[in-house]
Design a protein that fits this description.
This protein has about 150 residues and is α+β, with helices and mostly antiparallel strands. Helix content is about 35%, strand content about 50%.
C-alpha cells in the first residue's frame, strides 16, 4: 500500500475532472497505450486499459466509481494481471489550491513481474503524478484563453 497527500495549485473540481475523465488518459498518461470505456453508468465506468512499457503490454479492466459531490474516485480491477489493484482519490479544496489524497494497493499475480514492477514503482508513481498535474495545468490554461 502506498499513500500520498500533496497540495497542488489547481482547484479541486479541476483535479477531480482530470482523474475522472479516464477516456483521456491515453492523451497524457505515460504508459497508457490505450483505453476503452466498456460501459458507463450514473456513478462510474467500466474501462479497459492497455499499459505498455518497453516490450511489456498488458490489458486490465477496472470499475471506476465516481462521486463528484464528495470529489472521490475509487478504482478496483475486475479483470487483469493483478491479484489486487485498488486506488482511491480524494480532492479537498484548500483555498485556491487542492489537497490530493491518493492511495494505491496492488499485487501482481506473477511474482517475477511483481518484483520487476516493484523496483520501478516509485519512478512510475512520480511520472503519473506529474502527468495528472500537467494535464490540469494545460486544461486550466486552455480555459483561461477561451
Amino acid at each position: 500500500m502506498h499513500r500520498e497527500t500533496r497540495i497542488v495549485p489547481y482547484p479541486a473540481d479541476l483535479m477531480y475532472r482530470v482523474v475522472a475523465e479516464v477516456e483521456h488518459y491515453p492523451e497524457f498518461l505515460p504508459w497508457c497505450a490505450g483505453l476503452r470505456v466498456k460501459s458507463r453508468t450514473a456513478d462510474g465506468v467500466i474501462a479497459e486499459m492497455l499499459v505498455g512499457y518497453g516490450s511489456f503490454r498488458e490489458k486490465y479492466t477496472s470499475r471506476v466509481t465516481l462521486d463528484p459531490a464528495h470529489r472521490r474516485i475509487d478504482v478496483v480491477q475486475t479483470d487483469g494481471p493483478f491479484r489486487k489493484l485498488e486506488n482511491h482519490w480524494r480532492f479537498t479544496p484548500s483555498g485556491d489550491d487542492c489537497e490530493v489524497d491518493f492511495a494505491i494497493d496492488f499485487a501482481f499475480r506473477n511474482r517475477i513481474l511483481g518484483a520487476v514492477a516493484g523496483a520501478a514503482f516509485e519512478k512510475v508513481l512520480l511520472k503519473m503524478t506529474e502527468a495528472f498535474e500537467a494535464r490540469a495545468k494545460a486544461l486550466q490554461q486552455g480555459a483561461a484563453k477561451a
